[in-house]
Write a structure and sequence with these properties.
With 561 residues, this protein is an alpha+beta fold. Among the domains are: 2-79; 163-272, Beta-Lactamase; 411-557, Heat Shock Protein 90 (2-Layer Sandwich). The chain is 60% helix and 15% strand. The protein is built from 14 helices and twelve strands. It has helices at residues 2-29, 36-66, 72-78, 81-162, 181-187, 191-194, 204-208, 212-221, 274-285, 291-371, 378-406, 419-430, 451-467, 525-535, and strands spanning 166-170, 176-179, 225-232, 246-257, 263-272, 415-418, 436-440, 446-449, 474-483, 486-493, 540-544, 550-557. The strands form three sheets. Strands 2-1-5-4-3 form a five-stranded antiparallel beta sheet, sandwiched between helices. The chain has a five-stranded mixed beta sheet with strand order 7-9-10-12-11. A two-stranded antiparallel ribbon has the order 6-8. The longest helix has 82 residues, at 81-162. It is elongated and about 150 Å long. The model is unreliable at 515-520 (pLDDT under 50).
């Protein structure tokens, strides 16, 4: 049985490798493959599959002949020196072709795609910068719009509260939502007795006096109505009738609509005209004797009517202004939402479309270094290491861009952060060399903010001090002191220092002061620090000169959770 096991195994391998080779060839002929590197990789795999299939056929025939299944002449033919040499020649040819493809097709194509990736990153970065500028402008516009809305609403509140006319505002169902002081004084009732409890569409007095159909035209048809009403002591037992048996009012009721034309409130402005009606009755009885008094009262009444009309117009204009301001604010919010969606799309492209090929290149470089370690010379190994380093740099750059784009895009959780407890774990994570000593010269405060943001700030600033230290005995000092309503933090080092002409440049994205081959850097760290600090209404700057070390200073507000 074991004598047959070997030839059976080989023929099973022949079937499996035949399937694999056919699969590769079919994929190579398919139009689905649009990536040149993937095509080259499939070509290499197909060559290797052919080599393996040939070996399996050769040795399968060999062992099948030994097992007596095939004629002995087959074995005699295959063991001839010139036949034994054929699989080795095919291995050498396959390896030569693969190396040729890697050198003359893979590496140039890889460099071309790398240039395309760098160009795409530059384009996306430019788009992101432009979007950020647009977002800043839109935020400023939105703040101005919000300020204008608040000013108008505040003015409207003062007009309503200080108006000598009784004003009430109801919802779309007729339930009272607001009553001004003049109305509460007139009815001798409080907010607790009126707001949320009185409904004009269910008012029994208005129904008894036949006003309900008129009221419903305001709520259902959006009309403006003016009417008069007389109350007696039985209608409103709490009302101060001032010694009279009844009181009369004149009122205007009008609808308020939102920008979409939907009814949101109904407003009623009323004025007491009891005195006017009494005067009219007296004038009717004594017209002949009191004509001058009638003329005087008529003039006074005209002035009051004019004031009422002016107030009503002013209130109407204010309502229109508030509606227009709300529409502007909603448009600004929609525009900001569109910018946020563009940022989310960019983050998706970076995390999927850019990082996936980087992982593939890194994995392929690892396979080559492992499978062809004995074939590659020192230059080849050095080039592979250089390739892996470039891939890691690109991955770090993409991660930096992602971190930068996410800061401030969503409302982050705010917690109390004890920096005296948090900072030691950050330093331990950075693992500074033994020749660099990090000290805290002041007791650090407890602040309020997002923990991840604060860790990113300290990790970038302390990490830069460690990375660029050029002294045999490095010293990094972390300090803090109170400055009015803010905490002022400082991270000082005795490193190489920074020329003052570069103090602004280092906080710009992708800007570094040394070549990336000398010190690995993405050029995003300080930009991320600046964005986070400004998100918390703080400031960040550097105090340094060449050869005198550097001091990075930033402020954070002393706010409580």
């Amino acid at each position: 049985m074991f004598r047959l096991l070997t030839p059976i195994t080989y023929w099973v391998l022949i079937v499996m490798w035949s399937f694999i080779l056919l699969f590769y060839l079919k994929r190579l002929r398919s139009k689905i493959i649009k990536r040149q590197l993937l095509f080259i990789l499939l070509l290499i795999l197909a060559i290797d599959a052919f080599r393996t299939l040939f070996e399996s056929v050769y040795f399968g025939a060999w062992y099948t002949s030994l097992a007596g299944i095939l004629p002995e002449a087959v074995y005699t033919f295959l063991v001839r020196p010139e036949m034994v040499f054929i699989p080795k020649i095919i291995n050498v040819v396959a390896a030569t072709v693969i190396i040729g493809i890697l050198l003359y097709r893979w590496l140039p194509q890889e460099e071309q795609e790398k240039d395309q990736l760098e160009k795409l990153i530059q384009e996306r970065t430019a788009e992101l910068t432009q979007s950020n500028e647009q977002l800043k402008n839109e935020i400023v516009e939105r703040k101005h719009a919000e300020k204008a809305v608040k000013a108008r609403e505040s003015f409207l509140d003062r007009v309503i509260d200080q108006s000598p006319f009784a004003i009430w505002i109801s919802d779309t169902e007729g339930t009272l939502q607001r009553a001004n002081p003049a109305l509460k004084k007139f009815l001798n009732l409080t907010d607790e007795q009126l707001v949320g409890k009185y409904n004009v569409l269910e008012d029994k007095i208005a129904e008894r006096k036949g006003l309900q159909p008129l009221f419903r035209t305001v709520f259902e048809e959006g009309k403006t109505i003016t009417f008069s009403l007389e109350w007696d002591g039985n209608d409103m037992p709490n009302m101060d009738l001032k010694g009279s048996n009844s009181v009369s009012i004149e009122a205007t009721m009008f609808p308020v609509h939102n920008p979409e034309g939907e009814l949101i409130n109904v407003v009623l402005i009323s004025i007491e005209i009891t005195g006017r009606k009494r005067a009219e009755e007296e004038l009717g009885k004594h017209r002949e004797h009191l004509e001058k008094l009638v003329e005087k009262r008529t003039e006074e009444l005209k002035e009051k009517t004019d004031k009422t009309e002016e107030s009503r117009k002013a209130l109407t204009y204010l309502v229109e202004d508030v509606n227009n301001a709300r529409e502007d604010l909603e448009k600004a919010n929609r525009d900001i939402g569109a910018v946020n969606r563009e940022l989310q799309d960019f983050a998706y492209i970076v995390s999927h479309d850019l990082k996936a090929p980087l992982r593939a290149v890194s994995q392929l470089a690892y396979w080559i270094s492992e499978d062809y370690a004995e074939v590659l010379d020192e230059d080849g190994k050095e080039n592979l290491n250089l390739l892996s380093g470039r891939v890691k740099r690109m991955d770090a750059l993409i991660n930096g861009i992602l971190q930068y784009s996410r800061v401030g895009r969503a409302k982050e959780k705010q917690d109390k952060i004890d920096l005296d407890k948090t900072l030691p774990s950050i330093i331990e994570t950075l693992a500074p060399p033994e020749n660099i000593r990090i000290t805290l010269k002041d007791e650090l405060p407890e602040i309020v903010g997002n923990k991840t943001h604060m860790e990113q700030v300290f990790q970038n600033l302390i990490g830069n001090a460690i990375k660029f230290m050029d002294k045999p005995e490095g010293l990094i000092t972390i300090g803090c002191r109170g400055e009015g309503s803010h905490w002022q933090f400082s991270i000082e080092d005795n490193g190489p220092g920074i020329n003052p002409k570069y103090h602004d440049r280092i906080f710009k994205i992708f800007q570094t002061l040394s070549a990336r081959d000398e010190r690995e850097s993405t050029g995003i760290g300080l930009t991320l620090v600046k964005k986070i600090i400004e998100l918390y209404n703080g400031e960040v700057w550097v105090e340094s000169d060449v050869g005198k070390g550097s001091s990075f200073v930033f402020t954070l507000p002393k706010k409580k959770a």
